[in-house]
Amino acid sequence: MSDNSKITTLLPDNIAALTAYSSAKSEKLTGTTWLNANESPYSRTPNINLADLNRYPDPQPQQVITRYACYANLEPEQVLMTRGADEGIELLVRTFCSPAKDSIALFLPTYGMYKVTADTHNIAINGLTQELLLKGTVDEIVTAVADSKLVFICNPNNPTGSMTSLDKIRKITQQLAGKAIVVVDEAYIEFCPEQTAASLINEFSNLVVLRTLSKAFALAGLRTGFTLANSELLAPIRKVIAPYPVSAVVASIAADALSSDNIASMRRQVTILNSLKAKLKSWLEQSPAVIKVLSGEGNFVTLKLKDKQSFNIALEQGLVMRAFTLYGENDWLRISIGNEQELEQVKIWLDGLSLTSNTVEQELS
């Protein structure tokens, strides 16, 4: 038996069968224009304080917590800082779900880390649909959730951009009180801030909102997120989280990003990106190379290509976007909203596809 085989025999069944989450960066593509990971095109150059790195950091840096609580209109005790929103997902599953016993409910297609985290901890998946979430009644949704311990609602949803209304989230949370925790993942909420569920946290003890600095705050490389909930719900999570989850350098950069001036700057950038998104959607809707464009929120647009070979043509041009299999079809594409120069590369690609399509149609006629 090889050494690798010996290691494999030591793995729990759920880990041995696990398929790792395929992130945009794990695909190892090459290019010059990167619109595949929903990153902000704006970069930050913060002043970093490197003093006292010989000391352990504050487990929950007070300045960051206070500033984020102010930003989210919450109290500091309702805010937990994590290593990205992904750690928030993992902490919720570890804290509230019993392995080989409990399940979590998802509305597919949605963000893949919910399933990967559940699989890692041997938690079952109650796979529901986005159609049920968006079009079903609250009673139908609650019935389908059944005895799932956590209910994940990605809002806006990645990769479709669809939104679940605040009123519907309120009613679902109300009906699941004492039965399940509703987790609203708001990674993209800065692009539609009026629809945040954070305003409901003071109403419900079974509601969690996940946030991140990776998208609108342009700090994807920092890996900083926040878990927002009532202090009673956060109390057991504080028992589970690592003793020093946030480095002093990360805390310093995050605090700077959450200053009033930088929040105002972020909001100006969001306005620009939303405007550029509208322009991109117009181009896509007019392109003969695109069959369908999903309308929704967030700093991305998801579309169905007429010919999936169009994606490879984009790669040849150095344009990297995110190919998806959605609804059982592998000809879907998600385009992150970049700056004007980056989106101009998308326009060049689309124009080239249109020219090719027109030439083919003329030859066939």
UniProtKB/TrEMBL annotation:
The keyword Transport does not apply. Its EC number is 2.6.1.9. PROSITE patterns: AA_TRANSFER_CLASS_2. It comes from the Bacteria. Its cofactor is pyridoxal 5'-phosphate. Pfam families: Aminotran_1_2. It is an enzyme of class 2 (transferase). SUPFAM superfamilies: PLP-dependent transferases. Pathway: Amino-acid biosynthesis; L-histidine biosynthesis; L-histidine from 5-phospho-alpha-D-ribose 1-diphosphate: step 7/9. Keywords: Amino-acid biosynthesis, Aminotransferase, Histidine biosynthesis, Pyridoxal phosphate, Transferase. Signal peptide: none annotated. GO terms for molecular function: transaminase activity. Belongs to the class-II pyridoxal-phosphate-dependent aminotransferase family. Histidinol-phosphate aminotransferase subfamily. Homodimer. This is histidinol-phosphate transaminase. The lineage of its organism: Bacteria, Pseudomonadati, Pseudomonadota, Gammaproteobacteria, Alteromonadales. The gene is hisC.
